[in-house]
Amino acid sequence: MSIQRPNQPGQGSRHVSLVALPDAVVSTLFGIFDVMNAFVFIDPAQGETGAPALFQVDIVGEAVGPMDLASGVPVNVRRAIDTIETTDIVIVPSVLLRSLGWTKGRYSRLVHWFDGREATVHFAYARAFGASYPTVTIHPERALVISGRREELVSSGASTTWHDLALYLIARYAGATAAQEVARMFALQWHQDGLTPYIIFEGKTDHGDAEIERAQQWLRDHFSVANPVEEMIKRSKLAERTFKRRFATATGLTPIAYVQRLRIEDAKRRLERTDASVDEISWRVGYEDAAFFRRLFKRTTGVAPGAYRKRFRIPEFARPGQGSRPRRPSVSTS
After folding, report:
1. Is this prediction's pTM over 0.70?
2. What's the pLDDT at 52?
3. 277 phi, psi to nearest 5 deg
4. pLDDT for res 104
5. How far apart are CA 277 and CA 258, in angstroms?
């Protein structure tokens, strides 16, 4: 997450305060540090006297000196926050949410930045974040969310979306060409399809409606049967309208939408782990019309089934038993 002062045309080097927190993830903090300093590597002249770097990155914290990050890796805090009179960009790296959950008030000086704003968070933390900070509208399916009247608050979502954050800041302050150069140098990619393809659907079960929870439990193993909604209603012994109303209230989804999410989730696993064709997978998860399945899959995940398989399936050379085999070079005649 970053917060910035408004654009100042003609300004040279911009000061970046990269905040080291005890809960910070080491890969994010050091990754941002390297990428924001990339211009010194791309153009060595920027490291020489009289040629200021586009960004001057300081690792800052509550106190100067060594500090252990979430993984136990130490970082040397160069400057204390309270000694910095002015800075152009403040970046707070991603933090690790431990099994005990989040403790409110831990970083109270940062929280007010978000009040009443839109933001994104790691999709795995979305439910906990929403419960702790209900005034913040979150979009966990988005890689970046830019908010504020001057677009001064930028938040990034899951894990390596810090790539998008760093590239966005470089493009905003140094131009698109500079961002493209850095992306090539570090082999970074924008998450242009968003994060929906990465999100695993987990139906809400802590709603307290025992009748609906029983229906959900049955549906986990029977979502591919014909007419699963009608079958759930019969098993519940509730009136159809009552069942559908209670199901939507409890889970946040209509029964048919819930069935579709379970089917698409199973299809994702089959695309990742099997060689089955898209048509066969469509039939396996409960759809005889493969064309409808393809449309539904793309509408739900943001990508087509074939594109999903290409992105998430383990490459052949990395599969067990394949690493030691020499690969024959491919020959293209096109």
Report:
1. yes
2. 56
3. -70, 160
4. 80
5. 24
Confidence of residue 38 (pLDDT cuts 50, 70, 90): confident
- Domains of the chain plus CATH, in order, are 2-198 (3.40.50.880), 210-316 (1.10.10.60)
Dihedral over Cα of 242, 244, 248, 251: its sign: positive
pLDDT at 331: 46
How much is the pLDDT for 274?
95
Residues 6 or more apart whose Cβ sits within 8 Å of residue 148? 117
Top-ranked range on mean pLDDT: pick from 78-92, 105-119, 187-201, 285-299? 285-299
